[in-house]
Design a protein that fits this description.
The complex is a heterodimer of chains A (470) and B (365). By secondary structure, chain A is an alpha/beta fold. Chain A contains eleven helices and 27 strands. In chain A, strands 6, 7, 9, 10, 12, 13, 15, 16, 18, 19, 21, 23 and 25 form a 13-stranded mixed sheet that branches. Chain A has a ten-stranded mixed sheet with strand order 5-4-8-11-14-17-20-22-24-26. The radius of gyration of chain A is 22 Å and the shape is globular. With 365 residues, chain B is mainly β. Chain B has one domain. Chain B is built from four helices and 19 strands. In chain B, the strands form three sheets. A nine-stranded mixed sheet of chain B has the order 3-4-6-8-10-12-14-16-18, covered by helices on one side. In chain B, strands 5-7-9-11-13-15-17-19 form an eight-stranded parallel sheet, with helices on one face. The longest helix of chain B has 17 residues. The radius of gyration of chain B is 20 Å and the shape is globular. The chains are: A alpha/beta (470), B mainly beta (365). At the A-B interface, strand 23, strand 25 and strand 26 of A face strand 18 and strand 19 of B.
Chain lengths: 470, 365
């Protein structure tokens, strides 16, 4: 007869700084739901050029035509008729921190944004609800010809570039939420790095959704031109409300020949958030795309960055960690299409499920006929901290030529009693031993992050782990 | 008649639709189904097995199958052979039993429903061979249920050597009681369209399932596999090993799922898939799933595909073999561990001969 192991569960502790709600002080917001009139209101409010107005209406039409995905997490709790698609905070875009209204400023100060800007970033964008409220880029970066601005300004000042690139990688036909994004997008960042320019310190955009029952649909468009390099960091958070919030952002990344882009995300949305985000990169000849992704928040996440390795010897690296706690269903992963000879990718994913949370790793690797000499290595590890949780691994590999070297491995398991016993014999409490093992499990991801973010991630893991003594 | 399947070999959990891997859709014309002449079970221990003329006369609950309900319903409806093999309690049939089907002009279709039941503490090894006359439209559809009682062992070896025009559906559902074991070996070597699904419910504590499969795709051959190990009982084990080679324009999809249900603590599941690729026009799809609702389990899968190791090839060629001979030798060695488990020398020789003959006709060797 097997002796059941003793377990004690303690509720999650407060998410402290992230859950702090601000008074909703919107200058303008659309009605709930989604109609051509509401989409037109957004266009008017944002003074869209005619082509963008038409684009939005067309995307809305597609949204109504497409059905919901037949796979993935349950999103029944999300009723589009209840979502406010556009909330403009009561301020204009500010270029100096002092001008940002005090309540919004307080939020970002709590989240450490201005401090990070001073110490370790080349530029910062901060979005509050549907609009970017602060955007700044250091003079020395600007002088290199780097453009880092909010999407609305980009639409006015760089309209031709936007017309050529906006939703060309992720089209509204991709899926229902891409169509929704096309119809109601607002805010986000535009980055252009000229050929040969290396931006040594990262740029960062921080997205904060404050209004309850609202959606955030920011668009990020980054073009790293030939031989250039950039590290872009994205942070997301929101306070917890009892109604569903929706994040359906879209990220389009063009990494030209010989360029390098690292895109890091620490996502810590509140646990009422439906995070249905779409990210896609097109990678040119000898170029490198790197993703570092930490998913901690949201009620439901569907996030699978797609990489099109279009040029010869294009490379992609993905390092991701997902931590699903109570009430969370985090479905994350990565997709790669190998479309040229000599292309390669390395993917490493870790997931942790605890306290009834569900984490899923979902991937797609497509090696096209022309991708001679393609190389792919996928490693996927999952850790289950209790039997109320779930952890699923759903990879697909589709190989269409013989000159390839493809390896995939996955493991699932739990923390072994021997390891805990060993650490406890060295004087650690059981909780500390578990937290240490989980931090060690996440270490390969943490070391890919800039230090401030690695600390934030470790802090998040520690907060999550304090809730469980298993 | 028209065979139309819309949701065969369904993935237990769906994924991105654009990949087209969630299920198999198949529309094929197959010859009219007529009664199939009796084929006898042979082997030394055949008298120890009880043969029934109905597949399930007592109406016991039958397990779910790998190809799914739609295929089961089709085969049940159009079956032209229905029967059951029962090994009574405590009876261990030491010598293997053999069943050999040959499809030809007169009998081009076999749609079989078979229940194999090994009662408590019994054992059975059954070897089934499927062959056919080349150049004819042939169809084999098998709906096979495997019920392994407490501490019973069922060892099923299937050797599929149908010609390139043949369609082969192999729909297996198994269930294990405490301490029981189901071992399935599939040599999916022939058939133009070969579809195989295995689903095993490991219900009893300490029960286990192993599947060893080899396949050989050349010409326009298409192979679709869906193996599922459902771990319900404590300390259950599953292991799937799938090795194969793809030539010419052949296509293969392998879906392999280890599903640890809540309560299956102490269970282990492993899945390994290795594919050798020989042509730029092949299509090789792998979908290795691990689903987990239980903490105290260990699951792993590995999938690798690529060309033959150049060092191996170089070594053999430095010993005087041509590139083609070296490739053939490596490939035969690759199939050896599985073919060696065929418990009859004559049959083993026949299968080796079949593989050699097939490789002689492959353009890229």
């Amino acid at each position: 007869m097997e002796t059941p192991r003793n377990k004690t569960y303690v509720d999650d502790i407060n998410r402290s700084i992230y859950d702090k709600k601000d008074k909703v002080n919107a200058a303008y917001q659309t009605s709930r739901g989604l109609t051509p009139e509401i989409v037109d209101q957004i266009s008017r409010e944002k003074k869209d050029p005619q082509w963008m107005r038409e684009f939005r209406q067309k995307a809305l039409q597609i949204y109504h035509e497409l059905e919901l995905p037949v796979w993935g997490p349950n999103i029944d709790g999300l009723n589009m008729d209840d979502i406010v698609t556009y909330v403009r905070p009561d301020t204009k875009l500010q270029l100096t921190w002092e001008e940002v209204p005090q309540d919004i400023k307080n939020t970002f100060v709590r989240l450490g944004i201005p401090q990070a800007e001073r110490t370790s970033l080349a530029g910062v964008g901060a979005q509050y609800d549907s609009e970017v409220v602060y955007h700044n880029v250091k003079e020395e970066v600007k002088s290199l010809g780097v453009i880092y601005t909010d999407m609305e300004s980009a639409l006015r000042e760089h309209e031709d570039i936007l017309k050529e690139h906006f939703m060309k990688l992720v089209t509204p036909r991709d899926h229902k939420f891409a169509a929704l994004h096309g119809a109601v997008w607002s805010g986000g960042s535009f980055v252009y790095v000229p050929p040969g320019v290396s931006v040594e310190i990262p740029l960062q955009s921080y997205f904060r959704l404050n209004a309850p029952g609202a959606g955030q649909f920011e668009h990020t468009l980054i073009i790293v031109d030939e031989g250039a390099s950039l590290h872009f960091i994205e942070g997301c958070s929101a306070p917890k409300y009892n109604v569903a919030n929706l994040h359906a952002g879209c990220v389009e990344l063009f990494v030209r020949d010989g360029a390098r882009l690292r895109y890091s995300t620490i996502e810590n949305w509140s646990k009422n958030m439906y995070n249905l985000n779409t990210k896609r990169a097109q990678v040119g000849k000898n170029a490198t795309m790197e993703w570092v992704s930490g998913s901690f928040g949201s009620r439901v996440s569907c996030l699978y960055p797609m990489n099109i390795l279009k040029g010869e010897n294009a490379r992609m690296e993905y390092t991701g960690i997902t931590f699903a706690g109570k009430g969370q269903d985090l479905d994350t992963g990565v997709q790669v299409v190998y479309a040229a000879p000599g292309t390669s990718a390395h993917m490493s994913s870790k997931s942790i499920s605890k306290d009834g949370g569900t984490s899923t790793f979902r991937s797609a690797v497509i090696i096209e006929k022309e991708a001679e000499g393609a190389k792919c290595a996928v490693s996927c590890e999952s850790l289950m901290l209790d039997s109320r949780s779930r952890s699923d691994t759903i990879p697909v590999m589709d190989i269409r030529n013989d000159n390839v070297d493809i390896g995939h491995e996955a493991k699932i398991g739990r923390i072994s009693d021997d390891t805990i016993f060993y650490l406890m014999s060295r004087g650690l409490s059981e909780a500390d031993a578990r937290a240490m093992i989980v931090s060690g499990f996440a270490e390969p991801i943490a070391k890919e992050l800039p230090m401030e973010y690695a600390l934030e991630m470790n802090q998040l893991i520690r907060l999550e782990m304090e809730g469980s003594i298993g | 008649m028209i065979l139309e399947l819309k949701e065969a070999n369904q993935l237990p959990v769906k994924t991105f639709r654009w990949l087209g891997v969630n299920e198999l859709k198949l529309i094929k014309e197959i010859p009219e189904i007529k009664p199939f002449p009796p084929v006898e079970l042979t082997g030394k221990g055949v008298r120890d097995a009880v043969i029934g003329l109905k597949h399930n006369p007592s109406g016991i609950e039958l397990p779910q199958t790998g190809m799914g309900e739609e295929t089961s319903a089709f085969l049940h409806r159009y079956r032209n052979r229905e029967w059951a093999i029962t090994v009574p309690k405590g009876k261990k049939i030491a010598e293997p039993l053999f069943l050999s089907y040959r499809l030809d002009q007169e009998n081009p279709v076999l749609a079989e429903e078979l229940l194999i039941q090994a009662e408590q503490d019994s054992e059975l090894t059954l070897v089934i061979t499927y062959e056919g006359e080349a150049g004819l439209p042939l169809f084999h559809g098998g709906l096979i249920y495997l019920l392994a009682g407490k501490n019973a062992v069922i060892n099923l070896i299937q050797i599929q050597l149908l010609p390139g025009e043949g369609i082969h559906l192999n729909n297996i559902g198994g269930a294990c009681r405490e301490g029981a074991s189901i071992k399935i070996t599939q040599c999916e070597l022939g058939g133009g369209h070969a579809v195989s699904g295995i689903m095993t419910a490991l219900r009893g504590e300490n029960s286990e399932m192993t599947v060893d499969t080899i396949y050989l795709g050349d010409g326009e051959r298409f192979l679709d596999l869906n193996y599922v190990a459902n771990h319900y009982g404590k300390n259950t084990k599953s292991n799937m090993r799938v090795n194969g080679a793809l030539f010419d324009n052949s296509r293969k999809i392998f879906r392999g799922t280890i599903d640890f249900k809540k309560g299956a603590s102490g269970s282990e599941g492993a899945e390994g898939e290795y594919t050798l690729l020989f042509d730029k026009n092949i299509k090789n799809i792998s979908v290795p799933l691990i689903l987990c609702g239980e903490e105290n389990v260990s699951g792993k899968h590995a999938a690798n595909s690529g060309r033959i190791d150049e060092n191996q090839l170089f070594y053999l060629m430095s010993r005087g073999l041509s590139e083609g001979e070296a490739k053939k030798l490596i490939l035969e060695a690759w199939f050896h561990p599985v073919l060696d488990t065929i418990p009859s020398e004559t049959l083993r020789e026949q299968v080796f001969g079949y593989v050699k003959e097939r490789l002689n006709h492959v353009k890229s060797i």
